[in-house]
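Trying the structure run again after the queue cleared.
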Amino acid sequence: MFPPPRSRSRFYGRSTNYVNVAKDALLRRIESGDDVMEVERELAAQLGTRHAVLMPQARVGIYLVLRSLTRTKKKVILSPYTIHDVINMVICAGATPVFADIDRKTCNIDTREVEQLIDSDTAAVMVTHLHGLSCDIEGVAKVCRDRKVPLLEDTSQSFSASVGGRRLGTFGKAGIYSFGMAKNVNCLYGGAVVTDDDALATELRKELAQFPLTESELLLKRAAFCLLGDVLTWPPVFKASTYWAFRYGYLHGVEALNKRVRGEDAPQIKTEIPPHYLRRITPMQARLLVPQLGEADRLSAIRIGYAKIYDEGLAGIPEIITPPLRTDGSHIYLNYAIQVEDRHALVRFLMQHNRDITVQHMGNNADYECYAPWKRDCPNARLTGKQVVLLPTYPVYGEVEVRRNVELIQHYFKVHHQHATATRTVDDAQRAVRN
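Done. Tokens:
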């Protein structure tokens, strides 16, 4: 039996973030400074684009860009395997979601599906680079160029990834990034749109100028929530108490505990964007981003190293679909997402053996009842939505923890094989007796 583990996740950023938030709050300068424009210039330079426009949330960036792109044509082709509020942003923009099935290995949109679904009313193709894995962005970009359809990249989970020396988010009309609290660069809430299109950038800034700043009270509550999360997942505290509470909750089905760590519950459709989404990012949040932007590539390299260990230990197990291993920076592995037919049985085994692992609660939006008007059969997304298990990769997780996960997963499937072999032997013996 392994000792108690590290937490399945930790917030990125520095501990000094909390000091800086408190200092800005006490000095009443959350809304003061030219930091938003300065960070926009720095971000555009780092990513190699003409413009970067900071957003209150990535989903608001998706909404504003799509509203601009869908004034005449209305169809937006996208993956159904994403958070449901991405689908809501398409609908709120007055557009029609068209679900394209995915590639099982990467969990990202299938280029062949995109090509087949484009028609005369297609306003845009929106790809998602999920779990830190790039989709076939060069293939999709070529299809969009050939068919003269704007391409939008949802790069919320893949900041700092690149393909062929070009950053994800810069292959199309616009790229969307998230700087929410669960991302590898975060400022509590936040995001950005990058683009080389001068008119689009001007339109976005004009829209944002009408919005009030994100409320200081909301930001301080989010900072307090993150601080509490950091305390509860700090290894001495987590191993002594937090882990045992959540382990008990999972193994005994205690919903009051389990809902605390779920990423997403049942989807609800939105047809109008909530007014509280329409805000501007504050200078204080922009200041939190500055030290993190330069660290992103270094931290991605650590996660890629963990992915190599997972791949070496798990890629040969036939019951597991593992993500492709790429060490060129195109996959940065925000999590290492494997797919297992009976994922709850695996996670239960791991939790029983003192591992802190979770399933991906995001599902196939194309099957959800609330999106029935846009339903489309996407069998790969359906299977993926029921099978993904997220293995931790955050930089301070450590190689020891990664190897323990690998060892126990290997043991689980070894026992599974032995049980299956024994069952076949008994069945063969019984058939021999009957014959």
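The longest helix spans residues 399-434. Worth checking whether this holds up in the mutant runs.
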